[in-house]
């Protein structure tokens, strides 16, 4: 359980660009909507993804890529979170996800094995997921006890109301691909895919919502 306490604190300190709300444990109080520039807000309202990439080092050999990305989705927060919590939906909701397999689940927590990428560069790893107590987010972090083709990954999804019948999806990810050719050849491409994920969520959730409303 120590890892559960550490993850939100690391995200808060490393992704401080999003404001003081991230420094608080998300189950202690409702998060605030981050401050956007007028240009960013206009882009969000128009349906674009707003992303803030970042790279950082951690320890002697930890090299992380990722950042924070935002997307407005024309669906309720409950509908978006339901899609993110459904393993069967993840291959359609996340970019370049070949397979998502539920390993175990217990209340608000679950373990899901993911196979992501494009052949021949496919990565298999398992993440722990935990829904926050306030029900507005899902934290995730690598399960190092299972086979994993990435060195480390952690972050969270957060979904909050944004305008009338809309949601703001926030994705924060820190990924360490590990040493070798993958880091040299794929870092920039993988980072772009990570920051595109909220847009893919929008593409998946909105048609489903519109179809189910008929």
CATH topology (fold) name: Alpha-D-Glucose-1,6-Bisphosphate, Chain A, domain 4
| Uncertain stretches of 5 or more adjacent residues | 1-31
Shape: globular
Give the overall average pLDDT. Answer: 79
Cα-atom radius of gyration? 16 Å
Total number of β-strand segments? Answer: 8
The proportion of residues in beta strands is 35-45%
CATH class equals Alpha Beta
Quick overview of this protein structure:
Helix content is 30%, strand content 36%.
Descriptive keywords:
alpha+beta, 8 strands, 214 residues, 30% helix, Alpha-D-Glucose-1,6-Bisphosphate, Chain A, domain 4
Description of the molecule:
- The chain is of the alpha+beta class.
- It has a single domain (2-212), classed as 2-Layer Sandwich (Alpha-D-Glucose-1,6-Bisphosphate, Chain A, domain 4), CATH 3.30.530.
- It is 30% helix and 36% strand.
- Strand 3 and strand 4 form a beta hairpin.
- The protein is globular.
């Amino acid at each position: 359980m120590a890892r559960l306490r550490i993850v939100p604190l690391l995200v808060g300190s490393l992704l401080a660009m999003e404001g003081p709300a991230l420094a608080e444990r998300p189950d202690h109080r409702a998060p605030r909507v981050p401050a956007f520039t007028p240009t960013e807000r206009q882009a969000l309202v128009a349906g674009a993804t707003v992303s803030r990439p970042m790279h950082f080092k951690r320890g002697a050999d930890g090299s992380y890529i990722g950042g924070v990305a935002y997307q407005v989705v024309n669906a309720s927060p409950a509908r978006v979170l339901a899609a993110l919590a459904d393993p069967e939906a993840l291959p359609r909701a996340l970019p370049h996800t070949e397979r998502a397999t539920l390993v175990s689940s217990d209340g608000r927590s679950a373990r899901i094995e993911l196979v992501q990428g494009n052949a021949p560069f496919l990565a298999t790893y398992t993440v722990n997921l935990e829904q926050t107590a306030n029900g507005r987010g899902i934290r995730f972090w690598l399960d190092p006890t299972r086979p994993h083709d990435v060195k480390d990954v952690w972050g969270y999804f957060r979904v909050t109301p944004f305008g009338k019948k809309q949601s703001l999806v926030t994705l924060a990810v820190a990924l360490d691909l590990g040493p070798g050719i993958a880091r040299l050849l794929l870092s920039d491409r993988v980072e772009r895919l990570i920051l595109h994920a909220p847009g893919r969520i929008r593409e998946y959730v909105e048609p489903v919502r519109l179809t189910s409303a008929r």
